[in-house]
UniProtKB/TrEMBL annotation:
SMART domains reported for this sequence: HTH_GNTR (SM00345)
Recorded superkingdom: Bacteria
Stretches assigned to coiled coil: none
Keywords: DNA-binding, Transcription, Transcription regulation
Region described as Disordered: spans on this chain: 59-78
Protein name: GntR family transcriptional regulator
Keyword Nucleotide-binding: no
Organism, scientific name: Micromonospora rosaria
Length: 78
């Protein structure tokens, strides 16, 4: 019996698909962790873990005090 995909992976894959399709473009601001948690009906820790996974995949970048944005693949962050 297949196991269900972990909620944080489902969120990360959903956002990644929106980035790949062009629905979310480089420089677009993502919703806050709290807003993602409310949208996907998960705990804030789950939403935060999804953002961490996207960051690890170099799909998003965080700007302290400003928010999280879709990364620009032509300008990798150091």
């Amino acid at each position: 019996m297949p196991t269900a995909e972990a909620p944080y992976r489902r969120i990360a894959n959903d956002i990644a698909a929106k980035i790949k399709s062009g629905e979310l473009k480089p420089g677009d601001k993502l919703p806050s962790t709290r807003e993602l948690a409310e949208t996907y009906e998960v705990h804030m820790n789950t939403a935060s873990r999804a953002l961490s996974l996207l960051h690890d995949r170099d799909l998003i970048t965080g700007q302290p005090g400003r928010g999280t944005y879709v990364a620009d693949p032509t300008h990798p962050t150091p």
